[in-house]
Amino acid sequence: MTTPSQASGGSLVLDAEALYRELLRGVRSMLTPTTRLAGIASGGAWLAERLQKDLGLEGPPGVLSSVMHRDDFAQRGLSAGAQTALPFDVNGADVLVLDDVLYTGRTIRAVLNELFDYGRPASVRLAVLVDRGGRELPVQADFAAARVALPATQSLALARTDSGTFQFQVKEA
Question: Quick count: other Cβ atoms within 10 Å of Cβ 13?
């Protein structure tokens, strides 16, 4: 697991590309012949897309949207984000769900509901770039490239450049 560093001003510095390499190593060790990748829109979907290519897996990865199963749907409404697309049979599959940041666990709960709308997988595991703690539900990642503590007033989001490289953005909420 990679350890984040502090910049001179005390702000968190996360090397998203180094964390991606750690995630790639971890996911490679979790693969079985029946593993199918599914990333949570949008950061997790970007990770799944790149992992699918870097691991030499056939076909496109799946994309899972949390929109329809969120417990804050009344406040957030429908977003313009990606829709769920699972180009594989969920029934009996070993699904590895990918996300950029694990925080409260509520997004994971929502995408699990979405995933089960499509069938009954044999197993579901979770791999994330960063676990930032702060769980509100009993959810944990099977693999996290890094664990960091951030105040609730800050958000952490993965960004992708035009060239496909990753970087993190820490923002005050």
Answer: 12
3-state secondary structure labels for all residues of the chain = CCCCEECCCCCEECCHHHHHHHHHHHHHHHCCCCEEEEEECCHHHHHHHHHHHHCCCCCCCEEECCHHHCCCHHHHCCCCCCCCECCCCCCCCEEEEEEEEECCCHHHHHHHHHHHHCCCCCEEEEEEEEECCCCCCCCCCCEEEEECCCCCCEEEEEEECCCCCEEEEEEEC
pLDDT in tens, 143-168: 999 999 999 899 998 999 999 999 99
Count CB-CB contacts under 10 A for residue 72.
9
In terms of pTM, does the model score above 0.85? yes
